Amino acid sequence: MNVRRRSSAAALAAIAVIGAAAAPAVAADPSPSSSPSKTAPSGLYGTTDPQYDGVWRQSLALLAQDTAGVIPSSTAVKWLTDQQCANGAFAPFRADPAAACDAKTPIDTNNTAAAVQALWAVGGHGDVIEEALGWLKSVQNEDGGWGYVPGTPSDANSTSVVVGALTATETDPEKVVKDGKSPYDALLTFALPCAKDKGAGAFAFQPDKDGKLLPNADATAAGVLGALGEGLVADAADKADAASCTDADKPTREGAAANAAAYLTATLAKDGHLVSALGGSADQPDYGNTADAVVALAAQGGADKAAEPLAWLEKNAAKWAAESGPAAYAQLIFAAHATGTDPRDFGGTDLVAKLNATGPAPQGVAAKDTASANADEKSDEKDDDSPFGVWWFVGVCLVFGIGIGFLLSNRNKKQQP
Q1: Which of 26, 39, 62, 215 would give a disulfide with 202, using CB separation of 3.0 to 4.6 Å?
Q2: Stated pTM of the model
Q3: Which of 402, 359, 401 lies closest to 377, judged by CA?
Q4: If you write DSSP's letter for every residue of 158-217 in order, what string do you get?
Q5: Of 51, 320, 75, the residue nearest 61 (C-alpha)
Q6: Strand ranges inside 272-417, DSSP E
């Protein structure tokens, strides 16, 4: 995800120490650079170095614009389609799209699945989508799921974001099987039973080195959406009773989603937001995962179930999004959409105008709207010493270093691939 330019020696040191332990490495150069591109590639949203997140943030930006009723710039859409390799896959970023992809090109399932969802939403790119789906199906694991990089073990996040790509394109995940197992079969293997003392009902990212499942809030939000067959954009479900973890010999995917929603509800109850701790630092509010949790809770149990974390985001997330860039604005737009909240007045912030201002002007958007958002951005930069910007950058590098994708939703079907 895009992060603001400012960094620090401490943040870079943390990246070097923590990043060395992260595996698998998914980029050609395992040492992330904090330096932004001097000139952002034409058509790309955001100004920071796209090496590790270009396709991801572009996909989220386009999908969020479509969700908000904005027609994206054709230049921005072309930037994304030009990133595709001949085999259908996408890497985080290809500096020279004219050069053929080779064995060193760091293609992955998460960027490919996100690109599919975005391009399906904007319409008119059936060939690109078909090739991407074909590649995703070709690298499905024997357990029915996907890892971040082809050939690596399946994880809840990657499997869920691919499920989102399948369902967005009217492809039934239950019919995408490998050795008789579907993506839903794989997801259920990451679900913790309710009998667990800690993490009851949560999803694990994947088993640890001892084969144990450990609760992971990010994977849980992803798992809820994946189990429900949703993607990065999700609508609110009908209101449901308060979620509680209910054991079953073999829970259905809907049951696993309900159990995971109960875990998220309990975890959010303390502060109204999720937290993260990086490199031995004190716990920090995790804005991105909190936004993901809002989408997951709304999709599983209705907008009311996400009211508390949504209110916290409306009050606190504007500065984080300004520091973090296009993908952050997109995540908040997804949270607003899932709960029926106006993204143009999200705690007093026009998320849509802010997002539009980070890249080429969308079709039909008044220049004054973009100018207004740019003025607000400059104002935000005057107060840019928040530690959240630094540690968000560290977290992003870790996420892409260990191959954890991000989360997920179903789209109204707009075209056939």
Answers
A1: 215
A2: 0.79
A3: 359
A4: HHHHHHHHHHHTT--GGG--BTTB-HHHHHHTTBPPTT-SSSTTPBPSS--TTS-----H
A5: 75
A6: 274-276, 284-286
Closest by CA to 81, choosing from 52, 49, 118, is 118
CA dihedral for 276, 342, 165, 76, sign (positive or negative)? negative
Average pLDDT over residues 109-136: 97
**Res. 245: pLDDT tops 80:** no
The structure tokens 């019919």 sit at 175
Provide φ and ψ at 181, rounded to 5°.
-115, 140
Alpha helices in 357-409 (DSSP H): 367-381, 387-402
* Residues facing residue 191 across a β-bridge: 203
Q: What is the DSSP string of 60-127?
A: HHHHHHHHTT-B--HHHHHHHHTTB-TTS-B-S--S-TTSPP-TTS--BHHHHHHHHHHHHHH---HH
Q: Tell me if the bond preceding 362 is cis, omega within 30° of 0.
A: no
Q: Residue 304 pairs with which residues in a beta bridge?
A: none
Q: Measuring CA to CA, which residue among 252, 190, 255 is closest to residue 404?
A: 190
Q: What is the mean pLDDT of the chain?
A: 82
- Residue that wins the pLDDT comparison between 277 and 334: 334
Cα separation values, 8 from 34, 278, 389, Å: 9, 15, 10
Between the alpha carbon of residue 318 and those of residues 105, 282, 376, the distances in Å are 35, 21, 11
The neighbouring-strand residues paired with 182 are none
CB 133 within 8 A of CB 166: yes
CA pair distance 323, 325, nearest whole angstrom: 6
Q: Using one digit for the tens of pLDDT, what is the confidence trace for 173-221? A: 999 999 999 999 999 999 999 876 778 899 999 999 999 999 999 999 9
CA neighbor of 134 nearest in space, from 116, 158, 119, 157 = 116
pLDDT greater than 80 at residue 112: yes
Tell me the C-alpha distance between 70 and 201, whole Å. Answer: 38
